[in-house]
Structures are given as structure tokens and as C-alpha cells.
Design brief:
The structure is a single chain. The protein has one domain. Helices cover 80% and strands 0% of the residues.
């Protein structure tokens, strides 16, 4: 289950980053979102976040530096939730309805998945596991 969570989350971010980096529409939407959210240097930040999504998405998909990748995406999702996502929640609603809307945000769902990856770390189908096994056997041979 962890491998499927890791790979699907990595694939999502890799595709998202690729789209934002290599299509005009994707980059423009990302830059506009950053500008509206008040992110400093929105044009540069849009490239930076998109590049992080592509790079760390590929790493997460492969299971290489999984926890680091999940941590990077956790920061991205927290910032996205705090600057953009929270503004999509209707104003003037009760606390339970506000919480319902918050939990409905895709960024929050990804935070739960990333938390799962951060907590459990390496799975059996990851490059991290292969490297760890080789290191352990190399240490055992010395």
C-alpha cells in the first residue's frame, strides 16, 4: 500500500511539474496563482516550485530519497493551502462546515498521503530499499 501511495503521489507531482514547466498555459496559471496568493517573486517562484515538483516527483516515483521528497511536497502543500486553498473556502460558515471544506481541498488530501510516506518511509519496491540493503551487506562484509 505504501508503494502505491508513494508512486501515485510521485507521478501526480511529476506530471504537474512537467506541465507547469513545459507548457505556456501551465506556467501562466501557476504564475497567476502565485501572484494572487502574494508569493514573493511569483514568476521565479512558479519555475522553482514546478521544477521541484518535477524533480522530487520523479524521485518519489522511483523511491529514491522518498522522505526528503515527501518533506519538500509537504512544504509546498502547506504553503499552497495557506495562501491559495484556504481562500477557496466560503466565508461566513460554521466551524464544522469550514473544516469540511478544508478537508475537501486536494492539497490537504496530499498532506495526508505525504504524512503517510514520511511516517513509514521506505517500502519494498523503492530504490531507497535497494540502496539500504546494499549498504548493509557491504558493511557486513567488512
Amino acid at each position: 500500500m505504501l508503494a502505491l501511495t508513494r508512486m501515485s503521489t510521485g507521478l501526480f507531482f511529476a506530471i504537474s511539474g512537467f506541465y507547469k514547466l513545459f507548457t505556456q498555459n501551465g506556467y501562466e496559471r501557476m504564475a497567476a496563482t502565485m501572484l494572487e496568493a502574494g508569493i514573493p517573486f511569483p514568476l521565479i517562484s512558479a519555475y522553482w516550485v514546478a521544477a521541484c515538483e518535477l524533480l522530487f516527483g520523479i524521485l518519489l516515483l522511483a523511491g529514491l530519497m522518498s522522505r526528503l521528497s515527501a518533506l519538500v511536497f509537504t512544504v509546498i502543500c502547506l504553503v499552497a493551502t495557506a495562501t491559495d486553498g484556504i481562500h477557496r473556502i466560503p466565508q461566513g460558515i460554521g466551524a464544522w462546515e469550514w473544516l469540511d471544506w478544508l478537508l475537501y481541498l486536494p492539497e490537504v488530501l496530499y498532506l495526508f498521503l505525504l504524512g503517510f510516506i514520511l511516517l513509514l518511509g521506505i517500502d519494498g519496491f523503492s530504490l531507497d530499499r535497494i540502496i539500504l540493503r546494499r549498504c548493509r551487506s557491504a558493511i557486513g562484509k567488512t
